[in-house]
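Before going further, it is useful to explain how the protein records used in this thesis are read. An example of such a record is reproduced below.

***
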Amino acid sequence: FPLEVMQLASLSTVRTRYAPSPTGKLHLGGLRTALFSYLVAKKHGGQFLLRIEDTDKTREVPGSAQQLEEDLKWAGIIADEGPSNPGDCGPYIQSQRLPIYHQHAETLVKNKHAYHCFCTEERLQSLRKGTGQKGLPTLYDRWCLSLSQKDIESQLHDGTRHTLRLRVPEGSTEFEDIIKGKIKYQNIQIDDQILIKSDRFPTYHFANVVDDHLMRITHVIRGEEWLPSTPKHIMLYNGFGWKPPAFAHLPLVLNKDRTKLSKRQADISVQSYKDKGYDPAALVNFVALLGWAPNSTKEVFSMAELIEEFDISNINTAPAVSNHEKLDWFNEQHMRRHMSTNIGGLSQELREMVMRRYPSTPAHLVSEDYLNQVIRTLNGRTNKLADIPTFATYFWNEVDHAQIDATLLKKMWSPNADRLMTLVAEDLEKVPTESFTVEEISRVFKTVSEKEGVSSGKLWTPARLLLMGTPVGPGVPETIFTLGKSVALHRLKKSKQVPQF
């Protein structure tokens, strides 16, 4: 961090927050904002908060807030304070904090940093139309700022619908962004933002500032689309006499074709990645490297390693490009990690997937030992756990040779394949159960190959057809060992049922 930001962190507990609106699903950009906020807090021994900004009721999607929280938990981003685990700064849902906003709004009016606006929607539309035709920015003309105190009190007494507006001061607003550097705005270009709407709900800008202060937020980390709003927020901090937090505005995340990611893209929601079977640790790892670069060449990180390594000053200012081929690679790397550290967790997930796809699967085919062996056998053959029940259906279902494409059969089944498979099956049957290992199975194939004077491929290919019904898959000895002696022999002895050409 820049020196002044580090000094801020050393003087107080670092507190960051993720404050989404419940208007849809959590997507990659939102996940990255939450993750970076979480990493900054945890890196400095601080707290991470979740706050739901639901003041725009017209756009709220029922159930969205709960889904957002569940998606964050799935990703391992657990809030220290939030709707589900409140601390001393609650409520953490903005619609439950209306009296707080009204109280602070009156403070701004008394301090002359905000004023009542009684303009009708018709007048505002006429104003926007007029300035638009002249090619001017559509700024409010401060008509209501000139009202006398008597006029204001009269209209308030009559219950005239009105809003509350920020009174933008003269001059300029300058601040230091952790990522973007020093930024300066001329105040004459900034509109007198509505703070309290006519329905008495606060706007994002007002509620955001009040909540961040009252919740003791020290670092505001958000997307760069909020950069133009920052001077308004700083004006509000100044109006209240509060010290602003440190700001860090993250660069955009782009699609591979360099178009902007949108939360309306269903396939970039966290839920879609969950449904496709991506590992949460892999998705977090992938998202962490969208714009951030570690100080080493290391790419694969656990959450604990990210906390240790993360440095927000290493975030690029240029947009980050989301490459899903890289996500697949990360998923494969994390699957391999789990195989050595948490294969039991993988097998439990796989069991649920298998039972959803094949509900009548016998218990022994979804046992932990069997599924652990399936995962080991398929290591490197797939990069997503969820693909296994479809990719390797032969571990739970009989192979139906009648359904195999005729062209594929011709390629995989030679004229003497039946005799060769019979010999392999006979020799495998002689192997004692306690000696039925991958090494012993490989020895049987090698012996038959040498005895019959054929290449190993002449044995592997028809064996693969009988065992798996597919030209691609894991090694034949490993598959036979995983299926078990009785099942493997049962399939190998079906060579006479393969259609002949």
Q: What stands out?
A: The radius of gyration is 32 Å. The first helix runs from residue 3 to 11. The CA atoms of residues 378 and 474 lie 6 Å apart.
